[in-house]
Amino acid sequence: MAKCSICEKGAHFGHAVSHSNRKTNKMWKSNVKSVKVKVNGAAQKMYVCTSCLKSGKVERA
């Protein structure tokens, strides 16, 4: 699973709890995209989460 290169956001793990209180394993995946980003003036491909893209922490190439 990919991690955000900016904020290190990745997958979260826990339990899905049913009405009868049975617990099964669950994974929440973060919304991470492969994007071309400007790094020191040059274009580079990175994994960036959509919240970092929306907030303007990175600039698309």
Automatic annotation (TrEMBL):
Pfam families from the UniProt entry: Ribosomal_L28
One Gene Ontology biological process: translation
Alphabetical UniProt keywords: Ribonucleoprotein, Ribosomal protein
Gene Ontology cellular-component annotations: ribonucleoprotein complex; ribosome
Molecular function (Gene Ontology), one example: structural constituent of ribosome
The UniProt record lists the keyword Ribosomal protein: yes
Annotated family: Belongs to the bacterial ribosomal protein bL28 family.
Protein name: Large ribosomal subunit protein bL28
Species assigned in the record: Anaerobium acetethylicum
